[in-house]
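Human:
Class, as today's exercise, you are to examine the entry below, and be ready to discuss the fold:
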Amino acid sequence: MLYEYNGRYPCVGQGSYVSETAQVIGDVRIGDNCYIGHGAILRGDYGSIVIGNSTAVEEGVVIHAPPDQYCWIGTGVTIGHGAIIHAARIGDLAVIGMGSILSIYSEIGDGSIVAEGAVVKMRQAIEKAVVAGGNPARAIRKVAEKDVEYWKMGKQLYVDLAGKYIEMGMNPLKGTTKSGVEGAIDDIIIERLPETREIDGAKRWVDEKGEFAQISYREDIGHLAFFELRKGQTRGNHYHREKREVFYIVSGRIQAVFAGVPPGRERKVILEKGMKVHVPKGIVHSFYGIEDSLVIEYSPQYYDKTDSVKVDLGG
């Protein structure tokens, strides 16, 4: 799950999977085709975390950055189960073993392997392309070609796994709704597009010509629509059996209400200009105009009016 904190928002790249049981908080920037596993905690509350493309953060990993500092994690990095990361930098293609600890301001060189349970001390630097282990960690040997080949396979495994989780999802054995449509309020993803033109992916910026927003990036779109929501008016009060939807707020402010089927626990959130919300199938959604607002909606599925089921949430 993604969480805003103190005006700081996570940003997730295309093809990246973030488990609904992970906690990604504040200024955490995740590249494309990454895997963020179940129970991982990424805290960008007073520092910032930047993760490169095709990186796997496995189950139970904790990542944090010091106040006003960055934790830079490169491209194609593997961070094993239960590792604790306070490092300043982890180089491209590095492997961080299960249960290892990288202390504050430590650095791991490109292509290096930190063994399971190793402890890299505060400000310690591990050179590139070595295998390091122990407490404190030390270089044991150079990385061998067989290591590179093995971890090439392991890294691709998690890239593929991210894609499968996005495509197939997880199907809970308990708590399926009476309607037979699965949808959990906690599966809703809310993000704010980063205000920059220097990155790949969804983003927005303003220059002398005006505002430009790249709302979608490498997504299949079968349905695209635009609607106006005037102040004091409501739209929605329905869910879809099969269609997943994304809404981008072009202008204005909206109060959004989400609920499962049948309606029970509700989640309310204020959506503002530049924010984007991903709504899974089986989630009732209703939008109320706090201000006159303009919204773009799109979906990978084609529009089918028989897929929409009206539900009264009030308002």
In short: The domain at 2-146 is CATH 2.160.10.10 (UDP N-Acetylglucosamine Acyltransferase; domain 1). The first strand starts at residue 2 and ends at 3. The chain has two domains: 2-146, 202-310. The two ends are 28 Å apart (CA to CA).
